[in-house]
Amino acid sequence: MRRDPSISLEMTRLVEPAPFEEYKRSSLMMRYNTFILFGAPGSGKGTQGKTLGTIPRLYHCACGDVFRSIDTRTKVGKAFLEYSSKGRLVPDDITVELWREAINAAVEAHKFKPDIDTLVLDGIPRNLGQAKIMDDMIDVKKLFHLACPDRETLFYRLKKRALKENRLDDANEQVIQRRLDIYEKESRPVLSYYSQELVTVVDATQPPAKVLLEILQSVNDGVYEPAAV
User: How confident is the model at residue 18 (pLDDT cuts 50, 70, 90)?
Assistant: First the structure.
């Protein structure tokens, strides 16, 4: 019995992946070109991240926003809730998987186009464990260390922000000190994990506009061309 070639052709068309499905599959498999904003709590990572995210071809992803928008109906969302609701430390693999789901959702929503956009991360990786897990997911092009050795400045910024957002518990000096201690113990080692050629140190005690300018100069490899008048 001979097969009708028109039927075979039609079946091929039915199983052929749509262009967007091919794009999505390749996007999920690729390592994302990435800039990391790194620094102690109060160093201004969120402020710089939000501003950079308004620039075309840069996509800002703040880990804090990911946690605040968790869908607790998903498997990984339920796992996160299981730990966080009991005040337990969320394992690194669950944290990274939550981040990955948020990025995948951004790709599907066409907010993040990994073939032409650079990812700007803020708040992740937070420790060496997360950095190692994410090695297969991100291709770090630059890490901006927003350095603020003056702890009094960080105390002032964190307390001011907590009071402004009406988070009185976070304004407690013991709470602030604990956050800074955790950063020194768990987060700071991440700086040594990446090649020092990728690290750009920026003085975070400067006005935000000056910090942004230094970041942009580094992104452009030191070339800064003012707009023509």
Answer: low
Token couple for 55: 């620039």
Whether 19 is in a domain gets the answer no
Residue span of the structural domain in which 158 resides: 30-219
Q: Distance (Å, rounded) from C-alpha 143 to C-alpha 219?
A: 10
CATH assignment at residue 207: 3.40.50.300
Residue 24 lies in a domain: no
Place of tokens 């100069």: 217
SS3 50: helix
| Type and span of the H or E element at 119 | strand 118-122
Residue 14 lies in a domain: no
Q: What is the mean pLDDT of the chain?
A: 85
Distance (Å, whole) CA 190 – CA 200? 14
Measured CA to CA in angstroms, residue 97 lies from 66, 102, 138, 141 at distances of 11, 9, 13, 22
Q: What global pTM score does this model have?
A: 0.81
Q: Answer yes or no: is 110 within a domain.
A: yes
Number of folded domains that form the chain: 1
Collapse the DSSP code of 120 into the 3-class scheme (helix H, G, I; strand E, B; otherwise coil) and give the result: strand
